[in-house]
Sequence to fold (179 residues):
Amino acid sequence: MAKTIILALVMLISAGGFISPAWADRPTAQENVEAVQFSMNDEQFGGLRIGLTEKELTGNIACKPKKGKELLEGATGDYVQTWKYPGCGIELKMGSDKKGGAKRVASITLTSPASLMTKAGIHIGSTEGEVIKAYGKYRDRDGGTRKGKRFVAGSIYDGLIFLFRNGKVTEIFLGAAAE
Fold:
């Protein structure tokens, strides 16, 4: 009898009939097969992209930055500084290999009132459905996507992350969210 119950459970799990809530948001095997590799270096918001130098930033953002303190980031060994442009809804993490050195854009975060769009036309206020239509083929394979909360294109190590509230994009992040 116990063997029959165990066998039935194994068959049910194999057939996909038993899905725990933690698994529910993960892509199906078919979605994994069709997934395409995402690279944060291929994405941009208007003229903003990963790797842009301080000099190249000149003229790309209308607002003036509020620059944070330069800190050594243990995970990467880079010296990083946050540049916030609150009037434009833009935050940049700028990095350099030496303290006080010329910096490059390491990550980009957009929030309201940012009007910049991704290459696929997604912006603050776009719907979750529009994000999935534009970036669904890049959906993460590690379960970082949570319906109604977050969509990860690529991964948390090299990706584009959308946060949602009430079905609308409230934040867009491009870069490495985890080191």
Q: What stands out?
A: The radius of gyration is 20 Å. Residues 2 and 8 are 10 Å apart (CA to CA). The longest strand covers residues 104-111.
